[in-house]
Structures are given as C-alpha cells and as structure tokens.
Amino acid sequence: MRGMGAGQHYSGMRFSINIPNFGDFADARTVAMAAVAAEQAGWDALFIWDHVVHDKEERRGQPFGDPWMLLTAAALATSRIRLGALVTPVARRRPEQLARQVATLDSLSGGRVIFSAGLGGPVADEFGSFGEPTDPVVLAERLDEGLELLQRYWSGARVDHLGKHYEVRDVTLLPASTQQPRPPVWIGGFWPRRRPFRRAARWDGVVPLFTGASHGHVPPVDELREVVTYVHEHRKEHQDKPFEVVVGGVSPGDPDKARDLIAPLSDVGATWWDERQLMTTDALHRLAPIMRRINQGPPTL
Q: pTM, whole model, 2 decimals?
C-alpha cells in the first residue's frame, strides 16, 4: 500500500491534527486559528469530529459547532493543509445535503477535502435521542447506500436511484466536486469487526479504531498489521490505486521518543499519523493544550 503521492516526511508518512467540534472548538474563529497555526507549523491536515451531542452525560453543557461550518472557516484561512471530518455518520444525514456541503467545501478549498465516513456513535445518544433508527444493520445499510449516492452526486452526472433507504429521481447536483472522480473517501471502524474493513477496502483509506486502544491511545502494532493485511487481501482488484491507513494517538514532544512510537506503525503500513488528545482529559477540547502541540510541529521520522 502507498500514500497519496510523495509527502514531505519519511516514508510518505503524513501528519494531521485532530480536534473535536465541541468545547473551545465549537467556535469557527478558534478552528480557523488552529488551522492557520497547523499549516504554518508544517502539519498536513486538520480533522474535526462530526457529532451532534456525542456522549450526552459527558458533554452536557458544552457548546457544539457544525463541522462543515467550522471546516469552511478553516478553508478560508488556509491554502495548503487538507481538511475533513473524522468521521461523518452518513446514516445521520441526507446524502443530497451532505454531497452539497462536501462539494462546496472542496470548491472553496481548491480541492483539499478528505471525506471520512463511518457508522457513527454513541448510537443511543446521537441517533436514538432524535428518534432515528439505532439498529446497526440499518445504519450500515444506509451508510453503504449513502456512500454510493455521494459518489454519483460528486461526479456531476444525472442520478436516478431506487434503493432500500433512498430514492432519487432525475437529479444532477452541480458543481461536481473539484477533486475527480471524487474526494478521497476513508472509512472508519472498530477492529476486530470485519465488515467496516471490507467496506474500507472498496474506497480510498481506512481509519481503524481498536477496542483495546481508545481515542488518544496508540494502537498495538500487531493489531494494525492484522488490519493492513486484512484490507490488503480485500483490495486485490484495486492494488494499483493509492490507499491510506490512518492511525493516531498522543505522540511525545521528544523527537526520538516520537520516532520510536510511530516508526513501527509506519513499517507495518500506516501512512498517516493523526495527533489526538486522550478522551478522558479536558485537553481534548481546550484550545491552549492543542495549540501547544500544534506549534511544536509534526513528529519527524
């Protein structure tokens, strides 16, 4: 597997900053400021969460911002870094509206959008709170059908569709996405569940999460190797196309220690390191600690 062209870092590895869309980062001006700092410090991308309430008990009283509005502010303030939501629950959105949002941002940013999708969660809070279906089988069906519709909408071609969950009659959404045939599509999922990784194999990248390594914790190298091997086996007809493997966690400020942490992940196939804060601390959604990490710059391998 290989990345999307030669990066400026060792082995084509690229580096992103990951922030939630709540707390200090509910404010679009704050997100724009973080994006500018990330671009200036040499990071390759800024990714933002796509949640409505997240965990209601944990986040009660915290403000949230719409991820596409926040990313628009980031796009207007920058010129180089890639931008996207990590990850968007397609089943929680109308595909035609989502297609418009992503295509508009892709145009505004000059083709810098990366689109990441997944089932979404916590399901009870993010779906059930609003009377939406919570059956993961139904959500997975909507995700797959929605992804196919998004791809067709972004092409700028006429769409007619009669599916299990969506119906489209004689619709052409223009402009098409700036990136053609589509913005890169990455798929998130929890390993060792297999279905999300078979889904990822059909697209452009995988964002594996691990049941034994929660947000901000570095994944075990052996488990990542299993993921890369599994996805590779299911991409036999797409071996000639670039494919991204995105992992993340908290990297130490010391360059040697960061290299010791990330290089083994790169060696087994990771192409992106996504710098994340631990879910269990307020640093997750506070500007000051995130800016300190951004300004230190990405790890160097």
A: 0.94
Do 66 and 21 form a contact (C-beta atoms < 8 A)? yes
Which tens digit of pLDDT belongs to each residue from 80-137?
Answer: 999 999 999 999 999 999 999 999 999 999 999 999 999 999 999 999 999 999 999 9
What is the C-alpha separation between 149 and 164, in angstroms, rounded? 12
Q: What is the 3-state secondary structure (H, E, C) of 130-171?
A: HCCCCCHHHHHHHHHHHHHHHHHHHCCCCEEEECCCCEEEEE
For residue range 281-293, list pLDDT tens digits in order. 899 999 999 999 9
- Sequence-distant (6+) residues with CB within 8 A of 164 are 141, 145
Q: How confident is the model at residue 6 (pLDDT cuts 50, 70, 90)?
A: very low
Superfamily in which the 14-296 domain is placed by CATH: Luciferase-like domain (3.20.20.30)
What residues are paired with 213 via a beta bridge? 210
The tokens for 299 are 């790890």
255: tokens are 């360059």
End-to-end CA distance of the chain: 19
What is the DSSP secondary structure assignment for residue 115, as one 8-state letter? Answer: E
Phi and psi torsions of 263, nearest 5°: -55, -45
CB 46 within 8 A of CB 19: yes
Q: Of 116, 251, 290, which Cα lies nearest the Cα of 189?
A: 116
